[in-house]
Design brief:
Order of helices and strands: HHHHHH
Structural class: mainly alpha
CATH superfamily of the largest domain: Aspartate receptor, ligand-binding domain
Number of strands: 0
CATH class of the largest domain: Mainly Alpha
Number of helices: 6
Distance between the termini: 25 Å
CATH architecture of the largest domain: Up-down Bundle
Number of domains: 2
Strand content: under 5%
Length: 257
């Protein structure tokens, strides 16, 4: 007796096709996870570069400008008073400090400035002229090589002229530090969001794979059960064609490669 089995046609009717589909799903999910991670890392890197270029470097520039106006001038005068450097050296140093201030200020102006920062920058620029004139006056007095005049100028006039830019530079520096902290928090938020996206995608892939494996396993169990019943029926002499064809069709549908 010849038995005819007819299995439904279609790509997902064979076990091998289902395994290929599961592998393809896993591969696509891995690509999605990798792309999401790469995108998140690029955003974090861009944020960190922004913090360094537009916040950390400007803070360093502004602090050095502040030091050049305030503490460095005092150090030069004290060194002259103590005889540690000559008047000529002091004059050269003051000129070099003035050039350095202009270099740093010009570099700072090339960085990205937020609207709030522009307001603070304008306040510094408004006070910079008086501070520059105070340094010019100090350089002129140093050329006289008169310790008393230089000392009196530092005590009575210099810091009065310098104080406004000292305050405005301090305000601008504080703003930069606040922005750096805000950008850091934003970068940390992006990192957490990326971790969540990757975790969710990975969980979905795992759950989907488990569901597919469960479905495959159940169908294979049903096919094996049908095959066992078929074998038992044949062993018991049950050669009814419909039951045999049905069992063989189920087995072929679930297990054929």
């Amino acid at each position: 007796m010849t038995l005819q089995t007819s299995a439904p046609k279609g790509f997902f009717r064979s076990l091998s096709s289902k395994i290929i589909a599961l592998q393809a799903l896993t591969f696509v999910a891995m690509i999605v996870v990798g792309v999401a991670g790469l995108f998140g890392m690029e955003r974090i890197l861009d944020r960190m570069e922004t913090i360094f270029a537009d916040r950390i470097v400007p803070v360093q520039q502004l602090k050095e400008i502040n030091d050049l106006y305030v503490s460095e001038s005092r150090i030069i005068v004290d060194a002259v008073w103590a005889g540690e450097i000559s008047w000529q050296d002091a004059s050269t140093i003051v000129d070099r400090k003035q050039a350095r201030i202009e270099e740093l200020w010009g570099a700072y102006l090339l960085t990205y400035l937020t609207p709030e920062e522009v307001i603070l920058k304008d306040a510094v620029a408004a006070n910079k002229g008086a501070a520059d004139r105070a340094l010019e006056q100090l350089a002129t007095l140093i050329e006289t090589e008169n310790r008393g005049i230089v000392r009196d100028y530092m005590r009575e006039s210099f810091y009065i002229a310098i104080d406004p830019i000292y305050q405005s530079l301090g305000d601008l520096t504080q703003y930069q530090l606040g922005e750096a902290d805000r950008q850091t928090v934003a970068g940390q938020t992006i990192a957490r969001q990326t971790q969540i996206v990757i975790s969710v995608i990975s969980l979905l892939v795992i759950l989907t794979s488990l569901v597919i494996v469960w479905v495959f396993t159940n169908r294979m169990k049903r096919a094996l059960a049908s095959a066992v019943r078929l074998a038992e029926g044949v062993a018991n002499g049950d050669l009814a064609k419909p039951s045999i064809n049905e069992a063989m069709t189920k087995s072929a549908t679930c297990c054929r490669f």
